[in-house]
Design goal:
Blueprint: H1 3-9, H2 34-43, H3 59-72, E1 76-80, H4 83-94, E2 100-104, H5 109-121, E3 125-129, E4 144-150, H6 162-171, E5 175-179, E6 197-201, E7 215-219, H7 224-233, H8 240-250, H9 253-272, E8 277-281, H10 291-297, E9 304-309, H11 315-321, E10 326-327, E11 337-341, E12 358-362, H12 368-383
Parallel strand pairs: 2-3, 2-4, 4-5, 5-6, 10-11
Antiparallel strand pairs: 1-7, 6-7, 8-9, 9-12, 11-12
Helix pairs in contact: 3-8, 4-5, 4-7, 11-12
The protein binds pyridoxal-5'-phosphate.
Length: about 375
């Protein structure tokens, strides 16, 4: 069956019944007999879909876990209250005091903060490597245990050659963890490219309506047991209402992503022909250094891109003037967003990027003509001042 069809049927309850799995709110699960209780306890040790206690998720979360595991092509998926929580739990599942972690230098800012605070206090050392590297021998140590990748990287959208990098990692028996929020289990499948775990902030496109916080971590056969143990012993779960809202949003994931992609490419084209623009960073544009790799490994692009303007461009007045693009963090909802960014910051080869003022845009689902008109009006206003 095609992925588009499966997306609409994940978690369908028995008929006659509703199309979506209902919100099942429960802590205690009641049994009539001790035998039934004991039976549930033993079956849940090997089956994540057994309803045993609220902390292990109810049927609502179980439907979502099965859906994401299938989309990522993984053995098991676990849910978390935020994307950052998913990343923190996943890293702690595979690392202990004395271990060394290699992280791509374009990683999401909160991932860097996690590495520099809690992980380092717990005795885990971290080094950063450039997104273009595929052989990490120069950065690896005897105590290196894991590699954290993110492709395309946050802000500059550098594309990584995951098949080559993961085959290097296999020679050292390292666990490779991917932040797959850009691809959101639909556009990109890191587990098929050799990674062991794929983390997605479902806060973004999975839920898709700017009203849910959630994270998911999906592991292959090699990594599933370690991830499962960490999730269970630390009591990670996602509330049933949030699981429901995520699965409901996911029914239209493919359609939304198609429109986000079309709109973002059109807006990127518009910026690229403006004399005020130095560079447009979008992995689907032919002038992007990672475009061929992305085309080889992914099924498309999302609504994100960044623009680096010429040095004296009045970025803040421009962003303040555009009306259909609100200023805000996060992305992946239906609405357009803009945010000033510093794409050179924290990057080992940041000097490669122009130094002018920069912004990241998220193209929402509005009609593209309205978005372009809004940008043109904002640009004219900012320049005439
Ligand atoms: C948003 C985001 C996260 C964190 O997700 P939250 O749900 O906001 O905690 C992690 N990685 C990437 C790439 C993100 O964009």
């Amino acid at each position: 069956m095609r992925r588009e069809t499966k997306l609409l049927h994940y978690g369908r309850p028995p008929l006659p019944g509703p199309a979506n799995p209902p919100v099942v709110r429960a802590s205690t699960i009641l049994h009539e007999t001790v035998e039934s209780f004991d039976d549930t306890r033993s079956r849940r040790e090997t089956d994540d879909s057994v309803l045993s206690y609220g902390r292990r998720g109810t049927t609502t979360a179980h439907a979502l876990m099965a859906a994401i595991a299938d989309m990522e092509g993984g053995d098991a998926c676990y849910l978390f209250p935020t994307g950052v929580a998913a990343m923190a739990s996943t890293l702690s599942a595979f690392l202990r005091a004395g271990d060394h972690l290699l992280v791509v230098d374009t990683a999401f800012h909160a991932t860097r903060t996690l590495c520099g605070s809690v992980l380092s206090r717990n005795g885990i050392t971290v080094d950063y490597f450039p997104a273009q590297a595929t052989d990490l021998s120069a950065w690896a140590k005897p105590e290196t245990k894991a590699v954290l990748v993110e492709s395309p990287g946050s802000g500059s959208f550098d594309v990584m050659d995951l098949p080559r990098l993961t085959s290097w990692a296999k020679t050292r028996d390292l666990v490779v963890i991917a932040d797959n929020t850009y691809g959101s289990a639909w556009l990109y499948q890191p587990l098929q490219l050799g990674c062991d775990v794929s983390v997605v902030a479902g806060t973004k496109y999975l839920s898709g309506h700017a009203d849910v916080m959630m994270g998911a971590s999906t592991a292959n056969h090699r990594a599933a047991a370690r991830l499962r143990e960490a999730v269970i012993v630390t009591g990670q779960t996602l509330a049933p209402d949030e699981a429901y809202a995520t699965l409901r949003g996911m029914r239209t994931l493919n359609l939304r992503l198609e429109r986000h992609e079309q709109n973002a490419l059109a807006l990127a084209d518009w910026f690229a022909q403006r004399p005020e623009v130095e560079s447009v960073l979008h992995p689907g544009r032919r002038d992007h250094p990672g475009a061929a790799l992305w085309k080889r490994d992914a099924r498309g692009c999302n609504g994100l891109f960044s623009v680096i303007f010429k040095e004296r461009f009045p970025l803040r007045p421009f962003l303040d003037r555009i009306e259909l693009f609100a200023i805000g963090t996060s992305w992946g909802g239906f609405e357009s967003l803009a945010l000033p960014i510093e794409p050179r910051k924290n990057r080992l080869d940041g000097h490669r990027l122009p130094a002018g003022p920069a912004a990241r845009f998220h193209a929402g689902l509005e009609h593209v003509d309205d978005l372009v008109n809004d940008l043109a009006k904002g640009m004219a206003g900012a320049l005439s001042n």
